[in-house]
Write a structure and sequence with these properties.
alpha/beta; Glutaredoxin; 3-stranded parallel β-sheet; two-stranded antiparallel sheet; 4 helices
Length: 112
């Protein structure tokens, strides 16, 4: 689903430091909201590292990065510490936001 031209659903989630983030608090700012399946997996780690490494560049364009996964705050705390993440990663263990944004899809492997 494309969200272009649509209002993003509002939400409040905790980050790796248990700080609450509400999307509407960023109104008027550019937000790069990305979803990923699980902390500390190879692809997700690489993606988070790339955002970490380019955060200054993104901020120079006025962009705030927010990552979201279904992992817990505790899992995010460990992941952020290990990877020196310098942006909020938000915990959605109840799958409220991932469902709002329709990012959960049926797993498809080898056409099955």
């Amino acid at each position: 689903m494309s969200w272009e031209g649509k209002t993003a659903p509002d939400f409040t989630l905790q980050d790796q430091e248990s700080k609450e983030h509400t999307l509407s608090d960023y109104q008027g700012q550019k937000v790069l909201l990305y979803f990923y399946p699980r902390d500390a997996t190879p692809g997700c780690t690489t993606e988070a590292q790339q955002f970490r490494d380019r955060l200054d560049e993104l901020k120079s364009y006025g962009v705030q990065v927010l990552g979201v996964s279904r992992d817990t705050v505790k899992s995010h705390e460990k992941f952020a510490l290990k990877e020196s993440l310098n942006f909020p990663i938000l915990a959605d263990p109840e799958e409220v936001v991932v469902n709002q944004y329709e990012v959960l899809k049926q797993k498809n492997m080898y056409g099955k």
